[in-house]
Design brief:
12 helices; alpha+beta; Deoxyribonuclease I, Chain A; binds 2-acetamido-2-deoxy-beta-D-glucopyranose; 15 strands; eight-stranded mixed sheet
């Protein structure tokens, strides 16, 4: 019996903290002066372990950020080189051959230095069009069907289809089934509020609507993921956690007289044996001067970033509930099309600042192509 005690202490000793940041970098810093430097500086101030990026405008954005962040940082972006949009930065080790993408996001597995732990990490940026809160504040909108038409359009892919594509992705399903050993984190800009936020209690603050926004609901119901912020702060009235917007306070048309609705649209979801200990929106420490006078702001984005700190607990042997099928009401004709992952296969590179200085970058093997993740 006594012999077991040092072993237990040893197990406890392997647990460590994990700080995750999701950061929409607003056209890659183009809307403030020296935007790229400011993005890097804000990441350094937060000092996260992993960052989910959105609005990576071109492939050299991740290269430049890793160069600015310093030696131990590396990154990957979505392999769509026309507009990568999503990317991941970390000061730990990106595991080659683990890149996977969907149309609106991408994933790599990360080995946490100084531990035996790995995480499966997704950065997502769902479609920005037909922004739901605008419908809710439009007095000509009087049925939920009209709002849902924006989330789940029949003529193109919307946020419902984007999320259904993620939760039905075979790699994602495999990751969830192993999340008791390798936690899964889905972070990003969903461009839509949470189904846990627009409740009866705060109807008055939401244009008179309580509404079950579907993207977060699909993620929670189907994959059993939890929203780290809402878990720690369950009352949306007391803790709205607004992330939109830092500087977009009034619409440019009508001479900035019409206010922009404020919402929490950036999220850090997780599944696995780790426990969030703090979670908060973040926009630096300086003043946030609204559009159109934002150019001198130290904070380079029109979103707040979101940060969640996890306590990384020992591996669990508990069985994992598998991913459940998506509620049929979220599948329309265009949704079925989205289930067949449309994006062609492509290669992604791990971009390492120190290697890049010498004019080359580490290439992922063919295993990194879509649909062939090592299980
Ligand atoms: C990245 O850095 C290179 C070299 O300084 C520069 O030419 C390029 O414009 C930068 N790209 C972005 C997106 O800032
Ligand atoms: C970078 O990583 C090396 C090797 O893991 C470590 O010795 C060093 O302290 C790290 N540097 C920084 C700035 O974190
Ligand atoms: C890459 O992204 C652009 C812009 O979103 C899109 O139009 C294009 O279809 C994408 N390319 C591929 C190969 O998916």
């Amino acid at each position: 019996m006594i012999l077991f005690i040092p072993y237990l202490i040893c197990l406890v000793g392997t647990s460590s903290a994990l700080k995750v940041m999701t950061f929409n970098i607003w056209l890659s810093g183009a809307e403030v002066t020296n935007g790229m430097e400011k993005i890097a500086k804000q990441i350094q101030n937060v000092n996260p372990d992993v960052v989910a990026l959105q609005e990576v405008e071109s492939p050299d954005v991740v290269t430049n950020l890793t160069l600015l962040l310093g030696d131990n940082w590396s990154g990957v972006h979505h392999c769509n080189s026309t507009y990568p949009d999503t990317g991941i930065l970390t000061k730990h080790t990106i595991i080659p051959g683990t890149y996977v993408h969907v149309d609106y996001g991408m994933h790599v597995k990360i080995q946490l230095l100084d531990t035996k732990r790995q995480i499966s990490f997704w950065s997502m940026h769902l479609d920005y069009r037909s922004y739901g809160p605008y419908a809710c504040y439009n007095k000509l909108v009087n049925s939920e069907k009209q709002i849902m038409a924006g989330e789940m359009p029949t003529t193109c892919t919307g946020r419902v289809q984007n999320m259904v594509q993620l939760v039905t992705n075979q790699n994602f399903i495999n990751q969830i089934s192993k999340s008791n050993v390798v936690p899964v984190i889905v972070a990003g800009d969903f461009n839509v509020p949470s189904d846990e936020d627009w409740t009866e209690a705060n109807r008055a603050e939401h244009g008179g609507w309580a509404f079950e926004w579907p993207a977060t609901k699909i993620l929670r119901d189907s994959s059993g993921m939890k929203d780290s912020f809402r878990e720690l702060h369950p009352d949306p009235l007391a803790d709205p956690g607004i992330t939109w917007s830092t500087v977009n306070k009034f619409e440019k048309e009508w001479d900035y007289t019409i206010p922009e609705p404020e919402d929490r649209i950036d999220f850090i979801f997780y599944r696995g044996p780790l426990r969030p200990t703090s979670s908060f929106p973040y926009a630096g420490t300086g003043p946030l001067t609204p559009i159109p006078h934002q150019w001198g702001n130290e904070w380079p984005s029109d979103h707040y970033a979101f940060i969640t700190e996890f306590q990384d607990l020992p591996v669990s042997d508990d069985p994992v509930d598998p991913v459940k099928s998506v509620d049929r009401k979220y599948i329309n004709r265009h949704g079925r099309d989205a289930l067949r992952v449309a994006t062609p296969q492509c290669n992604a590179e791990i971009i390492d600042g120190s290697e890049e200085r010498q004019g080359r970058s580490l290439s992922l093997s063919g295993e990194g192509q879509h649909g062939s993740e090592v299980k």
